[in-house]
User: What shape does this take?
Amino acid sequence: MDNIVIEVCYATKNQDVFFVSLKLQQGTKAIEALAISGVFEKFSELDKANLKLGVFARKVTSEYVLQHLDRLEIYRPLNISPMEARKLRAQKKTS
Assistant: This one.
């Protein structure tokens, strides 16, 4: 079976960045790659059951089968909606 190379990345709101390259077997799922990467041990706040994942900013599920050179990204929940953030920025400019 052929191997693939992927990257796993996650950034905390404190700007701690986790970035690792992995060589995996073809057919590896996203959740399997995350387990292999060690991200769950390093960041205990991650909830395996409610992960928001993407590959190059395109949403994927934990069952997504990774492809060679994919960058698997773990997304944090938003603190504020983008629309609300725009409103707050606009209010600051007019103040």
